[in-house]
Amino acid sequence: MSLNPSFQILKTESMTKKDFFRIIIKLFGLYSLVISLFTFVPQNISNLYIYRDELSFLLVLIGSFLLLIALFLFLLFQTDWIIDKLNLTANFDDDQIVLGNLNTNSIYTFAIILIGGFMVIDNFPILLMDLINELKLRTSNYSIPNHDTNYFWFAVNFLNVIIGYLLVTNCKSIASFLDKK
Prior knowledge:
Elements (H helix, E strand, L loop, with lengths): L12 E4 H32 L6 H23 L1 H8 L9 E5 L3 H36 L11 H19 L1 H8 L3
Antiparallel strand pairs: 1-2
Helix pairs in contact: 1-2, 1-4, 4-5, 4-6
């Protein structure tokens, strides 16, 4: 008796609760880093021009940036310690979580694609509008008094689009890096 070759048994992947919380914590750390680096830091760098004479503002900015990096590294490399200290795996009926055909690498890949996609979707329209407005201004016969082009935010939006694109196109290698235990 032979089986029909088109008939395939679907293999379901399962992971432990600890593996699931590792994924969630690492993705939260990556998302927090991306959002903070590309919103918090540029906004405060643009404020640095206003508060350039105040040393305290510069120290707060550098301290915040270092704290952000430390938090990301802590979330990335100390996930087991966080899970144990917060007792996240307690009070569950079963130790296994059934995910169907998904494995941890595919979950990381999907999440990285979402993060990169959000970066592109959030910043591309602003970048495009800035380009169109600048083109209109430069080709117009009329001038706008006291108008200065803000190249800083143009560069920030451009970098966000490029980094979002790089996250989407390199999601598998980033996911395999995050999947290391």
